[in-house]
Each structure stands twice: as structure tokens, then as C-alpha cells.
């Protein structure tokens, strides 16, 4: 079989066939490059966002390369049988050697088809958190942020993650399917405090500082249409419980993931200022939630 394959390839490399294949390949390259150029000019006029245009520019490049290979390969091999024979002989070795590369490409197809995230989304994977800034054939790039419990502020580090991780690791997206995250701010006061007065103060602060989100908000409706994510109560609420020797007042509210640190800062500043004017409200200095 190998001898027949080599004989077929040599016969295909005759001078006439080579000239025809070179001519056809050159025309093919010119057509593909021209079609991509026209498509990019059209997209440049339609897309105002530079990030979206860059995303399309990369994807059209991958598509152009794939089309070229699919059309040009049969021209330079004597028949599809030759292709099948080569794949059968070398396929297993190629799969073993290039396993990670093939998984990365598969991960890229997963991103293109399933769209688990887009550029600009805040995601979490492999114990890393960050905002997606680029998606490529072999990997995607995030600008790292701290853990959400630590504020979610940017660390300034750029992290490249192989696409293969998407096929084996859980992925969280904090800003695509559901535009909001639930945030909780815990305020512990001592048993000697007038916790009812503290509760009233905190409810007043939450009403003043937090965004008023209704069940008719378009961002919530979009989430409901996509994944049936629906909440009966979306207004801020303050829960009361006794834990760790303190009366724990917990503000629970919806916020956009990138505003979480700012809102927490504003609310705590106001709480400290208001409590400082009261003689019967004391923060618990040694509170531990036990988590």
C-alpha cells in the first residue's frame, strides 16, 4: 500500500500537473484573501467596537486558512484515498504527540459554537478570576482580578489560559447570562447594642446607596429568557441573626460584578459615620463568622 501511495504521489508531481496546481493554488489564495479583505471592510464600517472587530479579524483568518487547506489539499495529493492512507498510518502518532494542540483547537471551537464567554466578561477558571480581553485559536487571555470575596479588583497581571482547560475544568461567568451578582455585607454588633436601631440605619443606607432594581429590569428579563433565572425579590434586604456572640445584620443586594468593591466601600463608609454618632450601637470587634 505504501508503494502504491508513493507511486501515486510521484506521478502527480509531473511538470504539467505541478504547473496546474501552482496556478490553481495561486488563484485560490487570491480569491480567499480578496474575500476576507472585502468582509473585513464591511465589518469595519458596521462594528464600532474595536474589540469586536479584532475578534472577527482573528476568526476570519482562521476560517480562511481552513478553507484553503480543505480546497488545496486534494489538488496536491493524487486522491482522497491517499489522504485516508496517510491519516491511517500517521494519525495515531499525530494524536499522541499533538494531544494538547488538538484539545486547544477543540476548546476554541467550543468557545465559538457554545459561547460560554465573550470578550469583556468576568470569568473564573482554574482558581483564577479575571476579565476576558482576548480569544485565540490556542488560548484565551484574561486580566486577572482578586477573588470576589477580596473585592474583585484588578491585579494588573495578564494571564494566558489554554483553551483545553475549558473541556476539563468548571467555568463560572459573572457577567454574561446573569448581569448581576448577589453581594452580602455583614455588620456584626454587640448584644448590648440597640440592634433594632442599627437595623433601621442599615436599611436606610441600603435604600440610599444601592441601585433600585425592579423585576421588570431589562437585564433581568434577558437572563430569564435565556436560562429561566428568576427571583421573586430583587430589592435589598437586611437579615438578622445571632452568630459568634454577635447580632449579625447582613445586607443582601444585587450588583454588577465590577461595581461590587465600590458599593461595599460606600456602604461601609456610611455605616461607620452613622454608627459613630450613636451612643448605643457598638460594632463587635472580635466577631468570627466561623467560615
UniProtKB/TrEMBL annotation:
| Coiled-coil ranges from the UniProt annotation | none
What broad class describes the main subcellular location of this protein? membrane
Single GO molecular function: mechanosensitive monoatomic ion channel activity
Keyword list, A-Z: Membrane, Transmembrane, Transmembrane helix
Tell me which Pfam families the record gives. MS_channel_2nd
The subcellular location is:
Membrane
Indicate what this protein is called per its UniProt record. Answer: Mechanosensitive ion channel
Give the organism the record lists.
Leptonema illini
Per the UniProt record, the lineage of the source organism begins with: Bacteria, Pseudomonadati, Spirochaetota, Spirochaetia, Leptospirales
